[in-house]
Specification:
Number of helices: 10
CATH superfamily of the largest domain: Zn peptidases
Radius of gyration: 21 Å
Oligomer: single chain
Order of helices and strands: EEHEHHHEEHEHEHHEEEEEEEHEEHEE
Number of strands: 18
CATH architecture of the largest domain: 3-Layer(aba) Sandwich
Structural class: alpha/beta
Distance between the termini: 54 Å
Length: 402
Amino acid sequence: MVAARLSSNAVQGGPADLQALPRVLGVQPARGAARGTLLFVVGGVHGNEPAGVRAIRKVLAEIEAYGLVVEGRVVGLVGNATALAQGKRFLGTDLNRLWTDARLEALRSDEVSAREPETREQCALLAAFEEHIAAGPWARVVLLDLHSTSAGGAPFTIISDTLQNRPVAFALPVPVLLGLEERIEGTLLSWFADQGHVAVCLEGGQNELPSTVDHHVAALWLTLVSAGLLRAADVPGLAAQRARLENSARNLPAVVELRYRFAIPEGALFEMRPGFQNFQPVRRGEALARIDPGSGEREVQSPLSGRVLMPRYQALGDDGFFVGREVRPLWLELSGWLRRARLGWLLLLMPGVHRDPLKHGELSVDRRVARWFTVEILHLFGYRWRTREGRTVRFVRRRDAV
């Protein structure tokens, strides 16, 4: 029988500094005018990932101690406070899978039980977002979502590939991961980007390592500058913060696109083979994990060559691992030009590609006809995979600010 490998999400009580956390860790400036950029920094959406909360507290305290003038507003928030207090990834449902339109509509119509712990957490987090956004008008709204992984390896960012997300993500000298929203539904990151805001996730390193807090601290300072809330000249030690991230991700590709996700079947026991780290090269057919779904243990092999990402060395969650491949910067430059030139109508000249007459911004693709690099071409024009209905695949246009 395969035993699931445990990490800190099996601990029955979190550290003392994570008990009874307020939803709002702090606001800088406390009574700032509603102008400029509104930056939300969220830590602990998963309760076994405490580094983000500690980093937010540290940076907010240093902003005040240094007497820095923030042009806009910074709001530090706790994601899943009850799970953090217990050191568990989640208590009932993964909070980072609940941010869908259907779920939020159900929340607002009281169709979801408030007794569920993650329901209470989501309602409180949503209320905090809405309160500060409503205090605008803001020039723009930015989310920096701080996470960590059960595996070791370099930090990296994750974005939905919109034009407005790119500058904030590329201001951090770590790899950028694309395509997560095509593999996982309901993340806070994707929902925020779908509202037309800037949204960047930083996976800072392994859950329990002190260096993960340092990576989050560095990323937050750099984001405060790149988003226009602070001047680089005013931030003490900013060059050292940048160097910390650069050194952590040296010799890694600048951009990686997820091409595969291994979803753990419901009820199955999963064990990742030991020793894998984020961005470790893997070969097609290489055994990465073992699984026992009840009909005999079997190996799980990588279906393609690339780099393994977010291998699961923890008890909770249904994402076994991901495999990604490097994206050349030339393709990002080309896609940016195509989107700004508004040439999306060219897609309708492709065989098997049709505009959905009932849903604005969606295309339907007949897989029997459209076979040659269709997904890659649609990505260039700013579309992402949404659903598959038999032989029809639906794509939705990302909300680029052009």
